[in-house]
Amino acid sequence: MMDDGDVAERPRPGPDSPGPASRPGRRVVIVGGGLAGLGAARRLAERGLGPGRVPVRVRVLEARERRGGRVWSRPFGKGLIDMGAQWIHGPSKQNAVFQLASQHHLLDEAAMSEENQAVELNAQLLAMSVCFTSSGKIIDPEVSASVEELFSSLMFKSKEYFQAATEPVRSLGEFLKNEIAQCAEEWKNDAEMCNLKLALLNVEFKIECCICGTHSLDLVALHPFGEYISLPGIDCTFPSGFKSLIDEMTKSLPKDIVSFNMPVKCIHWNGSLKTPEALERAHSVLVECENGEIIPADHVIVTVPLGFLKEHHKTFFDPQLPISKIKSIEKIGFGTSNKIFLEFEEPFWEPQYDLIKLVWEDESPLNERADLQTTWFRKILGFIVLPAARHGHVLLAVLAGQEAIFMEQLSDSEVKDCLTQVIRQFTGNPSLPPPKNILRTKWHSDRFTKGSYSYTEVGSSGDDIDIIAQPLPSEPAKAQPLQVLFAGEATHRTFYSTTHGALESGWREADRLRDYYLHHTSGNPKL
């Protein structure tokens, strides 16, 4: 394996020099040390390339001083909280993250039970929740449960249009609002109950915005929405934080394979960098880092978030990406979901609840809300109650979209004071003590992510995800193939936005390289 200082290389071979499959050792540079990047590195380290395990030297360039990317566990309260990825969505045999976590014994007994893995329902429906209203009341559980069931049925119905020849509207939001408007017609004889149900449905919209990572469900394309695969199993978390999986993945990698604080400035492919130094090197790709270091590679696997590609693709690749790939990068959505952790001296909630929903009685999904600066906190769906045994008395507020981005501009004290007033209003207790600690995320402000995760925006489709995932050059017959490969959650057509999608994409690109050398050394001309 390659160490951090190993950047020198042999002169470029002439016309009669050995081809890529006959040179001893391949250099693979992986840009990004998150789940996709570490997954690819581990796969290459374990399996090598082609028959006889063609030697491969891997170097992972991580822009931050920590590995994990959007997996980030930090101390808070009594334990570790996850600033980014937190849940294993659909923990079952089909989930790569769940299987890897199981192999390393990182999950508790409940998560590992066969019963939990077999559940086909949305985990949200299985949470014990309580709904507080903005007038300080608690909603009848039967009413809130009936609304949750209605929304779940509409979401299920929305996925049917993936197989349909036509779609009634372009966006998921439009579809849901049309269906809800019809329901409201049936409820109009009881205006008070109608308004309450609409307010409850508005909370479900906020939850789904956080799940999708979008500002509005009107931005989510209806037709491809059904292509996303929801795996069975009740969503679970890591008792020792998601970082425990990153730590286990890293243990099996060679020492010093990851270089920290190494932001990449530009990836020069197809021999585009024409400096005298570059002409002496025998590699198709040169990775230029912000610190000036030039790293040669036979192959580069790019695992940076889609938000980063959206902002930097024009300067991050030389030559620039093909027009088709640029258009797909621009079309696929990439939103922001942020978290606010609040630690209390004593809980004001009952211990049996997993979720506290905040229902603003004057809101409805059929009406738009304006004035971002004075109402940003209304986008918070409520509070997730973290397990007391692990965390102490900690609540997690989640919000998505423009409100989440606006929140990043505020100070901790402003956010804490605002949420204290909200909690006092909803509990009807004006003297309720404020939280003693606060910790929050700012994923949109993070220069290496510029948001949280991807979704299929109106005007895009799963084909765009596949185009983003296609390696470069796009015409390998005319140049060294597989110079630049792409991985990350936004490159997985059916598991985008998930950690298991990210991990699988890293494996996919490592396997793509392995298959290439397997066929190349077998004399197969179809590469």
Description:
The structure is a single chain. The chain has two domains: 26-69 and 258-333 and 456-521, FAD/NAD(P)-binding domain, CATH 3.50.50; 123-229 and 337-440, Alpha-Beta Complex (Polyamine Oxidase, Chain A, domain 2), CATH 3.90.660.10. Helix content is 36%, strand content 17%. The protein is built from 19 helices and 21 strands. The strands form six sheets. It has a six-stranded mixed sheet with strand order 6-16-17-18-15-19. The protein has a five-stranded parallel sheet with strand order 8-2-1-12-21, with helices on one face. Strand 10 (285-289) and strand 11 (294-297) form a beta hairpin. Helix 6 crosses helix 8 and helix 13 (323-331) packs across helix 18. It is globular and about 75 Å long.
Keywords summarizing the entry:
single chain, 527 residues, alpha/beta, FAD/NAD(P)-binding domain, Polyamine Oxidase, Chain A, domain 2, five-stranded parallel sheet, 19 helices, disordered C terminus
